[in-house]
Amino acid sequence: MALRQTLGVVIRLADLGEADKIVTLYTPATGQISGIAKGAKRSLKRFVNKLEIFSLLDLEYSDHYRLPIINQAELLNSHLPLREDYHAYTAAALVCELYRLWTHQGDHDQGLFALLNWVLARLQHREGRLESLVLFLARFYRRLGYQPDLSGCVSCRRLDRQAGPFRFQARQGTIVCSHCRPRSSAPGLSIATVRLLGRALELPLDKLSRLRLAPASTREALALFKEHDRVLLDRELAAWNFLGE
To answer: Cα–Cα distance between 176 and 168 in angstroms, integer?
Structure first.
């Protein structure tokens, strides 16, 4: 029976019988993995206060069976504030749901793992929480190769104040200016929002939190990514509807 060790962030938990849990994590070495933590609901030593959503763990597991068996877990960061604040919880839950839906076993990505830990740390701060979520979404979809094309109007290629406000066309993943499509019900974007999202893709991750979005830009960007997400997944995630309540 091969024993393996990895870091991982818990992105989903499910009960299995009366004593066990199925733990789904995103890891830097193997991507998304799900394993069985036997006796996790009764354990007073191995797993107590460790197998919680959002927690960063150092795991030892065996992969001899169809589902790996989690033998031990060392808690590195509980991200406890995310579970104690409703608004922080809903934002972090959206992040974890996106990782669960978009990643798979074997498609590991060190950048995605670093981004996950960055956003969970940022969401613990009340100030700028939704800004951090916007910045995360911009980087997340670029890492997946599905970032919207915000380089200019898809028709005339203009990207200036006089061409705004722009509209996001979710089906095409592009923006169009007010001159090329003066009437549209698509989410609106100011030139400031478009440029800030472009800037979010340029900065190193450790400097990303320096960006500041005005409340209006935050709302516009969240509306964009909500629609972008809905089109890509062909459904709307429930967590979107609880943000900012």
So the answer is: 7
